[in-house]
Amino acid sequence: MSDKLREDLQRKSEAVQQIMDPTLPDYQRLPAELHVYHSFYPLDEHREKSVKSGRIAIVFVYDYHPCSTTLYAKHLNPHPQFQSASLPEKVLWSYITQLASALKTIHSAGLAARVIEPSKILLTGKNRIRLNCCGMFDMLTYDGGKNTSHYQQEDLLHFGQLIVALACGSLAAVHNLPKSIDFIVRHYSADIKNVMLYLLSKPSNFKGIDDVITMVGPRILNEINSAHHYNDFLEGELCKELENGRLVRLMCKLGFINERPEFDMDTTWSETGDRYLLKLFRDYVFHQVDETGAPITDMAHVVQCLNKLDVGVDEKIMLTSRDEQSCLIVSYKELKSCIDTTFNELLRKP
């Protein structure tokens, strides 16, 4: 697995598995369980309260995506995490196609997003964006769906403003459109400009997300191809890790057998017979030293030996006792048989 992918996955895993320090005063206030959820961790310690009554305000709950950021934090704040003269066009098209797809789904359901702004769009992975806070305004300003068409037109307008802001790297760009359009014409293709101008045009009954999807159609194919390539990459990385479970099970069996202090009233059980061979093999794999006596920590050697043992190849190796008075020539196939026999012996013991 690539170091970058491993680091990203580990950071997300750590974020998901966070637990609160039991010594903190707020720990006792957390419920042990709530509905079907448990092991709670406060993501935000800021407690919103109503200005009038002082009571805790309404809370909207959405899916948690660890280590996410927003498009605003990534590209538009005074110190953006992404530093470049301009946002790469390929990335911008990726954002446009994903947002167009999201709006198509929302508008087709007779709804409006009403949250098309950089601070409400999450970046959860490599160019992967998700709409946040959907449905919030529908609840806070419920009108029975009377103004849905108006809100859908606002979605398209805000979509265009978002493209301008991302392309120019500034939220203020929408307030000086002639200059912003000139910048976009010089740095991006005409297709970007055409989509942006369509979205910024006056609302009408003939203006809809379907037209936007038609305009970005060729770019959607590029997005699909990129998604397939990334899936192929992830599948390749998964294949590298696929067999790790076999090696873990093998090491567990060795752990059950090696250095067992007593079995079946025999205190020397782990030091005799097949078990002694497995002890020497454990030393051969994990306890080798170089000519200066320094430990050899070669992970490749460990993985190679365990893979050969798991398969049971006919290759022979020399096992040496710790006092270097005895040497045994044995094959991986014979060692595999020793493990299976010994582990089954442990399982049969009532």
UniProtKB/TrEMBL annotation:
Q: Which UniProt keywords apply?
A: ATP-binding, Coiled coil, Cytoplasm, mRNA processing, Nucleotide-binding
Q: Where is the Pan3 C-terminal knob domain?
A: 209-346
Q: Name one GO cellular component term.
A: P-body
- Places the protein is found: Cytoplasm
Q: Which Gene3D superfamilies match?
A: 1.10.287.3700, 1.20.5.5160, Transferase(Phosphotransferase) domain 1
| GO MF term list | ATP binding; poly(A) binding
Q: Does the keyword Cytoplasm apply?
A: yes
Which SUPFAM superfamilies does the annotation name? Answer: Protein kinase-like (PK-like)
A biological-process GO annotation: mRNA processing
Residue ranges the record marks as coiled coil: none
PANTHER family from the UniProt entry: DEADENYLATION COMPLEX SUBUNIT PAN3, PAN2-PAN3 DEADENYLATION COMPLEX SUBUNIT PAN3
Question: What is the protein name given in its UniProt record?
Answer: PAB-dependent poly(A)-specific ribonuclease subunit 3
Which species is this record about?
A: Rhizophlyctis rosea
Q: Which gene encodes it?
A: PAN3
